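Subject: sequence -> structure tokens, single chain

Hey, anyone have a minute? Need the predicted structure for the following. Not urgent.
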Amino acid sequence: MVSADLALPIATSQSHVEMDAEAGSANRAAETPPSAQFDAAQILASVGEVAYDWRIETDVLLWGQNVAQVLLIHDPSRIATGRAFAELLEAENVQARFDAVMQSRQRDEGHGVGYQIQYCLRPEAGSETKLWIEDTGRWFADATGRPIRALGVLRVINERYEHERKLSFLARCDGLTGELNRHRLTEVLEDTIEETLQSRSSCGFLLVGVDDLTRINDAYGFDVADQVIAAIARRLRSRMRGKDTLGRFSGSKFGLVLRDCTPDDMAIAAERMLAGVRADMIPTSAGPIAATVTIGGVTAPRHARSAAEMLSRAHESLDGAKTRRRGSYSPYRPNIERDAVRRENARITEEIIAALNERRVFLAYETVATAADRRPAFYECLMRIRRSDGSLLPASNIVPAAERLGLVRLLDFRVLELVVDELTAAPALQASVNVSPASTADPDWWAGLASLLRAHTGLAGRLIVEITESAAIQDIEETRGFVARVKDLGCRIAIDDFGAGYTSFRNLRRLGVDLVKIDGAFVQDIMRAEDDRAFVRTLLDLASRLGLKTVAEWVPDEPVAQTLQMWGCDYLQGAWIGLASTERPWIASGAATIAI
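Reply:
Had a minute. Here:
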């Protein structure tokens, strides 16, 4: 392909065999019908390529006929040698063809050595035009192993280069502001901390949060908010020291790495940034907009010795500053109580995850009996965790922390699996299971419940799902949707601890629940406290009128049980009926539950 495309003969001395072969090739080409012939130079030019033959020993550089068209050079004779071509190359190039060939460590084993490099050239002196070239070729050596010839093709890759350059830019920088992105900023922070530790100096990090960005988005639109962010970035940069580094940490936050910076220096820098942003209104397409920022700062190694620590504590200081007064600066201050709580949270998290992985989550069962004859109606299944030392943790000790740490959904689903196993093993058993508010909105919990019920046909009618009243009243409409979905699956719904949240009976009727469990705090003292007597009796009367079954919790003794029965309570639960036990009561007593 190369020899057919070159303007000059490739070699001045050839063997008779080679000449005969070329002559034969030429004769065959002459015999080929015109419709089957093609112009190699035209084809190469159309795809932005030109072939070359570089005679290294003489430095003669032969080009294809389309060289002027591809390389935009008016006089191709200007690049008739390798040296002349090299004079067009930009100084920014890392490698040229001469380097790729003459400095190659590979050996020509008889088939040549391939190479592919990229470089930039300027076709005409003084022109603004630059061409990015991909040079693909193969060099050949003489008997001594010295390169004597290189054949190849140049391709103009300006579009590809610009695309790759843009991708490379976006890999390091934020597309809106042009500042470093979070990943690259974090790398700079890590390097700065390491340098600081080695030099035994001090550095700082400022986390700058744009105030009320949501308000700006809502009032003017996202495009105007972007203009505000870009303007704030420019103002922050204009007030930086030359050795510091700015980056966009997130949508509404910037990070500023301060080298050789003491706590006092950091405070001065923060005040300079605050003043720079709020000094003037920001011009936007929607008109001038006032903007402020709030800043949190941390110094290393005084208060952090890693990028992760520095970022975490910068967020803490920023949150503290926003809580106290927006548009202000707050440095990080150690807090012994807060750090102790975090260590405890980490310990609890580790304990919960280990308990789940090691199958140390199990059930305790508390009987709910009919008020009329005290026969077991169903069993409330309560979570327990066995510690690695064998001791037990009740749900009340673990659920609040699990909810706070976002782990309660994992526990809820494990408990649901265990309850389904019990219902499957005992076909006459009816059981209830508590569900936390976080799980009621979790798609994975719903998918797990539906999957379990599909796998165990007929089980849903024996399962009662309990949600607390406090959770139910947070969003009545959302709770109505939850109740409807559970009942569509065939289960029943109970409101637990009713009375503690003072839900109106109008809302209770709207929810469409099946059971109301009266909070034991009102039940246990009905024989002594007149207010509790009136409250419980009213609840029972209204529930009856609404056609709802009722369960009284924390029943302490027989007089209370008889009173509740007399008032029309349907079921009893508490110490008098039986405390929660890890033993299965329906097996120990031989008593089966009855239909409710």
